[in-house]
Amino acid sequence: MADFRKQRWLCPYLCPRKQLAVIAGLCIAHFVPGAFASDLEKKFADFNFDGHGDFRVLTLRNGKADQFDVYIWDTKIGKHVRNAALSGTIKPWPKEEHDVVECTWSGGHSGTLYTKEIYRWDGDEFRFVAAVRQECVQAGEEMIYVRVRSELRDGRPVVTEVTRFERDE
Length: 169
Prior knowledge:
With 169 residues, the protein is mostly beta strands. 0% of the residues lie in helices and 55% in strands. The chain has no helices and 14 strands. The strands form three sheets. The chain has a six-stranded antiparallel sheet, with no helix packed on it. Strand 1 and strand 2 (20-23) form a beta hairpin. The radius of gyration is 19 Å and the shape is elongated. The chain starts with 12 loop residues before the first strand and ends with a strand.
């Protein structure tokens, strides 16, 4: 049997004719037509909080920084459409209590260190809200944890909050 991991195709995600799972032009696995291969993670959620089911699909497995494409249900055309703003982000997931989607890249220190992008649905598309980064820095003899929040204002990044926090927070 040929080594499909080295064969390149131009089709995205699934190539039904050849029954191969394709990511970024690289064939990674065989799949059963109509189903996703185990290498292609597909999770359902309501990403834009409109009551219709949406989903994300794993496009790049990269340890703590897995990337996904997000598909939003478009009621006008009656099918799922790839969302450009959230696609390619790291672990996007909706947070219903705040009506936002958080894309989180967890770092070390048992998840205490991370980078998070926050997006909000405005009725037509997702808009970037803020980025939050928690980091550990050396201050003399002491290691301190710092949380920095930044937002875009008039198209420019602005740091809106810098706080010190304890690891248990």
